[in-house]
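For the sake of transparency, this paper describes our internal protein records without simplification. The record that follows is passed on verbatim for readers who wish to inspect the format:
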Amino acid sequence: MNYSNRQMKSQPMIAVHDVEVTSRWFQEVLGLRSGHGGDDYEMLLDGDELALQLHRWDAHNHPRLGDESNPSRGNGVLLWFATDSFDALVERVATAGVNVLDGPLYNPSAQQREIWLEGPEGYRVVVAGPRNPNESDNL
């Protein structure tokens, strides 16, 4: 892998009960595409870049995935994505009937538009648009 001048690249993985349903949600709502597919494991891609991995809780005996019996899915952890096509994302969210927790809104601290979603199996998913310090002038 060539990361150019980057030292590190995030490749988050979440454990889920239904990989295929969760994969379809991220494809439909965020516009990601399947890079692997299957019942046990999925790689979701943005172009050719890995954006998110999905792993079925009880597949392949990975004892460090977490505690499946604990209903708190990532309490305090957000699956945060960035897009240059924020308006198109908001349209996909509306079309898919996703539960919007907050937004679309402008976050003056981060200087970007955001939408906070309830994702599959209780995960919190946030999508942010490009940083724009002047956006608040247009609201």
